[in-house]
């Protein structure tokens, strides 16, 4: 009889521990609320910019695990494979560009914030960079800043993946003006200078 009581007590105690493990103090096993957005303001803004810049050429996937892009080379020992996968497991990329037709991986894009106020990467992650380079996946790091234009982002990305040379800006040359200009020469020079600076 005492054994049966002890067994019932042990079962009740065990059930209490299991229930406590999966519930909060109020008894709710799912203590969650929905977030307002999947993206931070910076991430959403940059995603919109990426879509305008290269959305016609590539699908854009966000928050991709590094391990989803790479795999270990054949011939590694089990120990080396485990160590490499353990390093890669918790790494994440902000965006990945995928070819619309073949669905092949084209490039990885990371936002970089040197002030690190918005939580984005500040220091270069040498493991991520080395792993992507080893797998022949271009790694594009874009500074977080305002004022990007879609065509500039497109040009930088296409240059990085080797599909188009980055346009070369011609240096502006200033014409030397004579020491003394007549009124008509001064007006003509002023007009030429303004046009050269647009």
TrEMBL record:
Residues 182-198 have a biased composition (Polar residues). Residues 36-159 form the DUF2726 domain. Residues 163-198 are annotated as: Disordered. It comes from the Bacteria. InterPro entries: DUF2726. This is Putative QueD like protein. It comes from Pseudoalteromonas phenolica.
């Amino acid at each position: 009889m005492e054994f049966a009581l002890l067994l019932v007590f042990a079962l009740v105690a065990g059930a209490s521990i299991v229930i406590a493990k999966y519930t909060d103090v109020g008894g709710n096993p799912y203590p969650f609320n929905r977030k307002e957005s999947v993206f931070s303001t910076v991430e959403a803004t940059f995603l919109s910019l990426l879509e305008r810049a290269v959305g016609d050429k590539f699908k854009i996937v966000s928050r991709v695990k590094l391990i989803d892009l790479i795999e270990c080379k054949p011939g590694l020992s089990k120990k080396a494979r485990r160590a490499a996968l353990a390093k890669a497991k918790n790494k994440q990329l902000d965006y990945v560009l995928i070819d619309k037709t073949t669905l092949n991986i084209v490039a990885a894009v990371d936002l970089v914030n040197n002030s690190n106020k918005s939580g984005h990467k500040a220091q270069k992650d040498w493991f991520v960079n080395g792993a992507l380079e080893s797998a022949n996946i271009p790694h594009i790091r874009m500074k977080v800043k305002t004022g990007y234009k879609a065509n500039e982002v497109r040009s930088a990305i296409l240059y990085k993946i080797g599909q188009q040379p980055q346009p070369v800006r011609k240096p502006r040359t200033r014409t030397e003006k004579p020491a003394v200009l007549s009124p008509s020469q001064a007006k003509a020079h002023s007009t030429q200078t303004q046009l050269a600076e647009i």
